[in-house]
Amino acid sequence: MNEIVAKRNSVIAQNIIKGLEKRNMKGFYAADKDEAIKIATELIGEGSSVTMGGAQSVKDLGLFDILKSGNYNFIDREEIEDKRAAYLAAYDADAYLGSCNAITQDGILVNIDGVGNRLSAYCFGPKKVVLIVGMNKVCPDLDSAVKRARNVAATVNVQRFGRNTPCAKTGQCHNCTSPECICGQFLITRFTMTPNRIHVIIVNDYLGF
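The chain above was modelled as a monomer; its predicted structure follows.
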């Protein structure tokens, strides 16, 4: 990445980290993907039970393959036939891995989900939550973060999943109640009562949607 842009990203990331700290969350800045992998694997710890949602950012980072093939008790929900059992297994995991649909420059996390299993794991259950967030998801404030989650992340994801929704056709949110809508649950994390349970790794790269 261009050095000038990288310098700007570092400054923004430090502001986000300060915001996360006052919200009882822990933030990290990774200058590249390798550093992000190092931070994430150290946070998770070898031998730990770990699972995740469908976070494309984790896959873009290469972390999915590392955890699945490494010395971790990786719970792959795609390999568990009973999806409810797979979702419930996340609550007892040492670590839950994911991302955000958007994050504000003062450390507020914004996420949208269909079923809600990912968001509920962010709120409660796993001992530790590790979120991989690319600079493409950083927004100035809460209003712009919600708009990004709805009009960028959600619209790309419905196309990725092959859903038949209005936004899949137009590329922008219609606030629909389509039977195939994936925007069933909204989660704004502005504070957590469990200090340093949520860890956010801000990566100097474009990851996910």
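The mean pLDDT is 95.
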